[in-house]
Amino acid sequence: MLRTFRLCDARIEECPAEGASIHFYINPTEDEKRYLVDVLKIDEHTLASALDPDELARLEFEPEHAALIFKRPKNYSAKDLFLFRVTSTGYFLFKDKLVCLLSEDIPLFEGKIFARTSSHHEALLKMLYRTIFHFLEHLKIINRISDELEQKINRAMENRYLLNLFTLEKSLVYYLNAIHSNAMAIEKIKHSAAKIGLAPEAVEFLDDLIVENNQCLKQAEIYANILTGLMDARGTIVGNNINVLMKTLNIITIGIMVPTFVVSAFSMNVKIPLARIPFAFWIIMGLAAVSVVGFLLFWKFRKW
Asked: How far apart are CA 96 and CA 65, in angstroms?
């Protein structure tokens, strides 16, 4: 699918393909790929890398354009079962246009940051900033989910929630690799600012990008270290919860067995005391109750 935009009065607006200078190819078809390779002279390997979720972020220069592979969070859905993945995006900057390749449909040019955009270079840098902000949003969601799972683990008797935490930890590994890879690409953009043709204002904005990405990387590292460092403790909590449950079941079982023994002793088919006493039943029930109280006091005294 192709979506096209243009710059008009420092604003980005959607328009027909004929007058567009910003082209978004979302999950491109084979015909669109052939057009990109044959007409726009985009390297076929670079084109495949832009749609490969395992590709590292990088910046390359071709005779007619600059090619940037950048990592971004993949759209999350409930069927992913707490696994947050990353994917790749390709940006191809020509002298008069910007071509972007996406593997899935996402909101484009939303937010105040795109309110005033005067060049393709500025549009590209703002899209990179939006990607970093998208990583930060997902990290907050991961942290919130982690807190909820921790509370459930404190009461859980099974490993399901612990496995969910392992999945979140795996997601953070993906995010750490992606954010670190993006940092290398942004540094290369800064070193190649003159070659790309970035204006001084764009270079200043690029410095802000580097700071934001570094903060994002630090935050991801903190969350990953917390999950990794406390994973053994959470596994111990699950095991301890099972031990507490078994202890409770043992108390109930023994508590039932003690009065059962008293009642059974008076239920034997032989001559027993109290057989001729009218209140024998209540006396036996009282003895059973006393035996339960005595057992609980003994249990408390021994601190079992």
From this structure: 10
Going by the DSSP 8-state scheme, the letter that residue 97 receives in this structure is: -
Main-chain dihedrals φ then ψ at residue 172, nearest 5 degrees? -65, -30
Residue pLDDT, tens place only, 70-104: 999 988 877 778 889 999 999 999 888 899 999 88
Q: What kind of architecture, by CATH, is found in domain 2-241?
A: 2-Layer Sandwich (3.30)
Kindly report the CA angle at 90 between 124 and 22, in degrees rounded to 5? Answer: 50
Neighbour order of strands in the sheet with 22-26: 11-14, 2-8, 22-26, 98-102, 86-93, 66-73, 58-61
What is the reported pTM? 0.76
Sign of CA dihedral 13, 18, 22, 25: positive
Residue 224 has pLDDT above 90, yes or no: no
Closest by Cα among 36, 21, 28, 98 to 66: 98
Model pLDDT for residues 25-47, shown as the tens digit of each residue: 998 889 989 988 988 888 888 88
Are 162 and 238 spatial neighbours (Cβ–Cβ below 8 Å)? yes
Q: How far apart are CA 44 and CA 23, in angstroms?
A: 18
Range(s) for CATH 3.30.460.20 in the chain?
2-241
Angle at which helix 200-265 crosses helix 120-153, to 10 degrees, equals 10
